[in-house]
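Can't paste images in this forum, so I'm doing it all in text. The chain is below; anyone willing to post the predicted structure tokens underneath?
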Amino acid sequence: MSKKEVRTISISGRLKVVISLISKDKFSLNVGSKETRLTNNMINLDLDVSCRPDVLADARFLPIRSSLFEQVILTDVMEHLPDKCELMALKEAYRVLRSRGLFILSTPNDYAFYKLLDPARYVMTHRHYSKEKVERLLEGSGFRMSDVFTAGGIWSCFANLWYSFVTFPLRKLLGTRLSCFPPLIAHLESEDYGFVRKSGYTVFARSKK
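Text version of the structure:
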């Protein structure tokens, strides 16, 4: 993927980069989707019933027959799985993909500065991965790598801090669905994802079965 392609699509941040990687017309499964629906031709799967997913299930144990989907998306999910369970989820994604199906993944980058400023890393299971580790995990699950890169930067990191210390506590306290970030932070975070970086905040990978 060229810098120009990422910059064009990533006006609204990380998920726009994901959207630029997926095929819009393929029958797709979005694992750990929350409320996000990336295309109309997509099944949303999540463990949280409040997100009203199409399928309520664990990424490690997909209640889906093999070779059903043309595309599977796992965006910012792998780092939340129980430790050493990544291969279980990736092999399940591989199983439900059709031959030559597309797999899209995103996860936090294993960069010391970002790890240090990640509150979730200290209070819950929230891991970070290098590009090399992502490639090894995908290839170990049977996938054939097409592309892996990082994007996002300091404002992406700041947005995560804002969500952790402001948005999330206020949502719990007030019981309301506040916006994740103020407009200025959202804009700057989106700008961060406008181009590929050597040490970006998020690792993105695209591979095939």
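The longest helix spans residues 154-174. The chain has one domain: 3-111+125-153+194-208.
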